[in-house]
Amino acid sequence: METNYTEEERYFRAQKRVEEIKKFYEHLTVYVLVNPIVIVVNLMTSPGYLYFIWSLLGWGMAVVLHGLKVFNFAPFFDKDWENKKISEFMENERQSKNTWE
């Protein structure tokens, strides 16, 4: 199923894609800049309890998932999965509508 997009539609799709990539790099930059501060504050205030690990792991997983989504490398919940689920829900709705009639 190939769609013929106009030049303007292709431009807006490309613009949206660039914006998504830009937001990912902003997210990554904040992660890289803030976590060293969290580590230093942790080590200076309570070196016996290394709570910065939770920030690194939790936020790190969010950055990785964001990157997978932006660069279309998600091994799950990709476009094929979305289309399959949409078709499934539409079929279920169509069947339930037919049983009521």
From TrEMBL:
- Entry keywords, A to Z: Membrane, Transmembrane, Transmembrane helix
Q: Where is the 2TM domain?
A: 13-91
Check the record and name the InterPro entries matching this protein: 2TM_dom
Transmembrane stretches, start-end: 24-43, 49-68
One of the Pfam families matching this protein, by short name: 2TM
Q: What is this protein called?
A: 2TM domain-containing protein
